[in-house]
Amino acid sequence: MIPFNVPPYAGPEMECLEKAAKINRKICGDGEFTKKVSAWLEERTQASRVFLTTSCTSALEMAAHLSGIGEGEEVIMPSYTFVSTADCFVLRHAVPVFVDIRPDTMNIDERKIEDAITDKTRVIAVVHYAGVACEMDTILDIARRHHLMVIEDNAQGILSTYKGHPLGTIGDFGCLSFHETKNYSMGEGGALQMRDPDRIEDAEILREKGTNRSKFFRGQIDKYTWMNYGSSYLPSELNAAYLYAQLTVADEIFKWRMDRWNEYREQLAPLAEDGRIELPVIPEDCTHNAHMFYIKCRDLEERQALIGFLKEKDILAVFHYIPLHISPAGRRFGRFHGEDEYTTKESERLLRLPMYYGLTADQVSYICACVKEFYDKQGRQAAANR
Fold it and tell me: What CATH number labels 13-247?
């Protein structure tokens, strides 16, 4: 079977793990490889500082805490996202206010944000779906005029840009994921991208269990102590070593994925031109990172039929998020503002095709041939029924 995802493995991983464990003899956090990963990310994303974390969820929790949002205050976000985008605010007893998405990019509809603002709104949380940027100029303008913070859930957007700016460093905070399904992986892991240098010390204390331990290790103080609220967001050095091995060949992985993405688009274009499916939209001002390739079917019934058909052909294709506002927790902790014109409807049409480092051109051609076979059969059946 062609799997939906295979965790990236570039080759140097075992060498880096061995160096961390046998030579450096350091497997807890903030060793050589944690520092190397952070430096690489700072250089490539132009962030003031990047803190490696145990997950993107951890990074989001840090960002929510650093935003200062509190009980009863509100955060505006899309409903079409992973639960962590909302959970990090719910943990602070804030209220997620969901607004509709754009049907072209599946990102938050920037035109719906301002109407959802109340005197309790403190944050706008955006999600760069499939590594394609939201309309950030409009969102930042709204945030400035209403004195709101902007947090970028950039779980899927490493090395993507908006008008030349790396995602995750446009708002106040960005949050990356290095889960095994992402372009670069440490199994479980993430990172907090900082834009404002003045907030770095607060982030250090938060990440180091509420202590100023980082200053102690830098020799700035002779002992460290408990300074503020904090938690243990620091990942193992082994995870960082595994990730660093992939970052040494990051451009090779990027090109491999982009080649497969372009092959999908080229081979499925005739179906899109015939109006049978829809393909991803990349706005003119955006560059993406080939995080995923999806198509949109006519409706939920057709999508489920296609998933079943591809499974019979030994291809694992999957749907994605169930909108948060229709979930039990979404109803309990948040609310949807305005009309759900596209969120549910578009989520029911979207189908993700296999995409990973190591997927071959021949496999992409086979997958596309099977998708075409499904629609050819549909067309013959419809003609027979007329």
Answer: 3.40.640.10
pLDDT over 90 (residue 173): yes
pTM of the predicted model as reported, rounded to 2 decimal places: 0.96
Return phi, psi of residue 193, to 5°.
-95, 125
Count of other CB atoms within 10 angstroms of residue 265: 16
* CATH number listed for the domain at residues 250-385: 3.90.1150.10
User: Is a pLDDT exceeding 80 seen at residue 186?
Assistant: yes
Helix (H, G, I), strand (E, B) or coil at 34: helix
Take residue 81 and report the two structure tokens written for it.
């996202």
Any bridge partners for residue 127, and if so which? 153
> CA 247, 192, 99: angle at the middle one, nearest 5?
115
How do residues 200-259 score in pLDDT, each as one tens digit? 999 999 999 999 988 988 889 999 999 999 999 999 999 999 999 999 999 999 999 999
Q: Do the beta carbons of residue 352 and residue 318 sit within 8 Å?
A: yes
Q: Minimal CA–CA distance to 45: which of 236, 175, 205, 240?
A: 175
Structure tokens at 257: 């994925």
Kindly list the distances between the CA atom of residue 304 and the CA atoms of 119, 157, 198, in Å, as whole numbers in the listed order: 42, 27, 49
Residue 94: what residue type? A
Bridge partners (DSSP) of residue 74 are 95, 121
- Eight-state DSSP code of residue 256: H
Instruction: Tell me phi and psi for residue 286, to 5 degrees.
Output: -115, 145
pLDDT for 6-24, tens place per residue? 999 999 999 999 999 999 9
Sequence spans of domains, the chain: 13-247, 250-385
Under a CB-based contact definition with an 8 Å cutoff, are residues 317 and 296 in contact?
Answer: no
Arithmetic mean of pLDDT, 326-336 = 98
